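Subject: for your reference before the review

Hello V.,

The reviewers asked for a structural picture of the protein, and I figured it would be easier to keep everything in one thread rather than splitting it across files. Below is the amino acid sequence we used in the manuscript, unchanged from the supplementary table.
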Amino acid sequence: MEQVKNETKRPPYGIISILMIGAFIAFLNNTLLNIALPSIMADLEVDASTVQWLTTGFMLVNGVLIPTTAFLIQKYSVRRLFIVAMGLFTAGTILAGFAHVFPILLAGRMTQASGSAILMPLLMNVMLVSFPIEKRGAAMGIFGLILMGAPAIGPTLSGWLIEHYDWRMLFHFVTPIAVVILLIGFFLLKDKKEKVDIRIDMISVLLSSVGFGGLLYGFSSAGKQGWDSPQVYLTIAIGAISLLVFILRQLKQERPMLNFKIFKYPMFALSSAISMVVTMAMFSGMLLLPIYVQTLRGISPMDAGLMMLPGAICMAVMSPVTGKLFDKFGGRLLAVIGLTITVITSYLLSQLTFETTYFHLILLYTVRMLGMSMVMMPVSTNGLNQLPVRFYPHGTAMNNTLQQVSGAIGTALLVTIMSNRAESKGKELGEAAMAKLTEQPTQEALAQMKQQIMMQATLDGINFAFFISVFIAAVALVLAFFMKRAKQAEDTVEENPVGKKVVNNKLAEN
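And here is what came back from the structure prediction:
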């Protein structure tokens, strides 16, 4: 799609609608799969560390492909990218739906990821170039409403399907919808794009793939393998070195694959830092609460999904509201209030007991999601608003990549903290229990005591991980006080010494 030069031009609502429906289905598929993992483990006879590759593999593909989307958006039309992305997602969904062994399921899942990785940056770029800054908050709010609808219905729908059908129905359910969306896009998307003479640097692609892929794989493996495993620290080291070389190479290139110079815009750099920290904190609720309610409290997957439903609905409903508030008041006020709520609710979640009521969990999680809804989209939009139009593809690609990386780091960090705390607490409780024994217990009594100690240690680990997330969210809260309402930087064209036109960007902010 051609970049919109005249922002007063009527936005292409047809294109945006088709892209949003495609992105919604991709998001829905992701949330459907989480609750199905235990069923997949039992059916395909794989352990937890193996089945986790359905999530890790998805993140790896995203980490490798998302940095290339800045190039793809500049090179190809929206129609072409959407058809390729939706085609890959549909093919992966069909393959996964008929998988009878785990490698085929994983291949289908990673094929899905290759399409999903293109859809989100593409939609974000179209939204940015279609709406002027003063209307962008409301537009992004509607965008958030639609995409947050997927997490709202995903867990509950997944729980119902798993209880009544085979786990493959999750993919069979999505397949016909994906096919219809692909056909609609094929026949209705008509945007044209002038031929752009740019070529991708394959060395940059390789460095990016090894860099982001290595970091994602290393941090994702840390929760299971431990930080002292060579598989973890070697892949992280290789990823970090490759990423450093990749960044240095991009800074020297005339047309970089991913332009790191966008970080010289202060509000974009600040919004990226806040978004990464908030994503890490958000994973504590998404990861730790299901472990608590299903493992320690014995709540069914269906009820676990229903527990998270009000929070997801709240986040979806609040999205257009926060969008309008963002246009009126800016992002700082919303971010400060939202992060204050997040810090408080994270602390309250660190006080869980075996007697914590179901209603109390619903209330805490819902209020926490309310806080999150006031942070994510306003902070991200405020940062992107400062970039010149030509940097939008790089800004959206960078944001999506950093979210994948911070998500992996947050998951690994919290799982490791929870596991280490539970292990040390278990030893402490075990020694205390043995010291109190006056006679040799029976095998049955010993097994019961071990079970109680394990549950108490796991609860302590979950509470401690939530407590750490309080400090993570507090970092984002401090950063939020430095936010200012961003004004789009201007593009000025001048001649360079060899006679080529180059664009200089004037930083602007008030």
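For the response letter, the relevant points are probably these. Residues 159 and 165 are 10 Å apart (CA to CA). The chain has 18 helices and two strands.

Happy to draft the paragraph if you're swamped.

O.
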